[in-house]
Amino acid sequence: MxxxxxxxxxxxxxNYDDFHAVKDLTFDVQRGELYALLGTNxxxxxxxxxxxEGHRASTSGKVTILGEDPRDRKAVRPRMGIMxxxxxxxxxxxxxxxxxLIGGLTGRKDHPDRVxxxxxxxxxxxxxxxxxxxxxxxxxxFATAIYGSPELIFLDEPxxxxxxxxxxxxxxxxDRLREDGATIxxxxxxxxxxxxxxxxxxxxxxxAFRMQGTVTExxxxxxxxxxxxxxxxxxxxxLESALSxxxxxxxxxxxxxxxxxxxxxxxxxxxxxxxxxxxxxTRLDDVFRSITxx
Length: 294
Prior knowledge:
The chain contains ten helices and 13 strands. By secondary structure, the chain is α/β, with parallel strands linked by helices. Helix 6 (164-179) links the parallel strand 6 and strand 7 (183-187). The mean pLDDT is 93. It is a peripheral membrane protein. Keywords: Antibiotic resistance, ATP-binding, Nucleotide-binding, Transport.
């Protein structure tokens, strides 16, 4: 493990009686990365994160964060922030009191009014948690995670319940934190967010990694596509294709640029019109679906 490794997981196992939830999981997260931990329902993501965050002991294996044992709260809590799916704040506390409490419990130093401004809750500072809307509570969750600008931030389904503008605002804040050197671990069901933002992704299924790598590395494991419709009198295609039930032609390819050039050159030379032409690489959600079939 080098000095730039923020999270190191070696052969992590988590058992619940006879159920093996996490199986020999090994991975690391480097300083400044946005690492997305994704998986199918019941894949073991939550158990993995609970161990990394120090909430649960592992059955076996070794985990360190920021060079420390995650269960050493005194050592790690001042340096990391956690945004849970549901933080369970006291309903009677105000937004300002909630942030002040989190600061005291974690040892992270900041100005609550500054953080409320960052997440757009300045006008809700004295409002009780019970009176906040669902989206406002989610922004408060985010505020508690970024309080003190910690080195390591866990974001568990951060944009659930947020409108489009609030999502954009949240990611703008994350981008600024990353510019300052923060490391982000993301879990989300919005795969497009992971595809757009993650430096690396780990895809879990049934307790283990099925794939891990950059978005490009993952999407290149499946062919890209070119699809279109043709007139009935069109000449024979220069590439092998399949006909879908809707009458569209589909070409699957691992050489998207080359095959698209071949197809377009053929269409030009034969004066053939490609109707409703669509082409692109495999999306992350296609890769996600594929891990359940392997």
